[in-house]
Amino acid sequence: MTRQRATQTMKPATAAKKLGVYLEATPDEFRDGVVSRDELDALQADPPEWLRELRRNGPHPRPVVADRLGVSISGLARAEITEPLTTAQIAALKEEQPEWLRRERNTRAEAQREEARLQAERSGGGTAR
Predict the structure, then answer these.
(1) Could you give the 3-state DSSP secondary structure of residue 93?
(2) Measuring CA to CA, which of 42, 49, 57, 83 is 20 to 30 A from 3?
(3) Contact 44, 19 (CB under 8 A)
C-alpha cells in the first residue's frame, strides 16, 4: 500500500516572503488563502502580471529595500525606514545619497570584508599579519 503524500501548504505571509514581495500589496485572493508548494513553484516559474508588477515597482519589503540600497535591515531601522518603499523611492534615495545611506553602506561593506576574512581563516586560507 502506498501512502498518499500530503500537499504542503504555507501561509500567504510565508509565500510572499519567498517570492520577495510585500504581502499587503498582493491581491486579496493571495492574502486570503493558503499557498501550496506547487502553486508557489508555478508563481516562481511563470509569474502572473501582478507579481511581475510588484517585483518591478513595489512596494518592496524591507529585505528587498535593504538589498537594493546596499545596506542591512538593521541599517534601515537605524535610519528609521520602517515602511515599504517603491522602486522610484529607492532610486531617489540612491540619487540623493543621504549621509545615513553612505554610512550604512560603509558599515555593510566592512561587515562583509570581516566575514570574508573570517571565512578565509576558517578554510585555512588566512594570511599572517
Answers:
(1) helix
(2) 42
(3) yes
Q: Among all chains, which residue has been given the C-alpha cell 549621509?
A: 99
What is the sign, positive or negative, of the torsion defined by CA atoms of 16, 19, 22, 25?
Answer: negative
Asked if 78 contacts 100 with a C-beta cutoff of 8 angstroms, the reply is yes
Work out the number of other CB atoms within 10 angstroms of the CB of residue 124.
6
CA dist., res. 41 & res. 58, Å (int): 21
Q: Could you read off the pLDDT of 7-29 as tens digits, one per residue?
A: 788 999 999 999 999 999 999 99
Q: Which three cell numbers stand for residue 20?
A: 520577495
What is the pLDDT at residue 75?
A: 92
Cell output for 78 = 537605524
Point out the residues of the chain with pLDDT beneath 50.
129
Q: For residue 36, list its beta bridge partners.
A: 9
Do 101 and 93 touch, CB atoms closer than 8 A?
yes
DSSP 123: T
In angstroms, the Cα distances linking 59 to 18, 38, 99, 122 are 16, 25, 23, 39
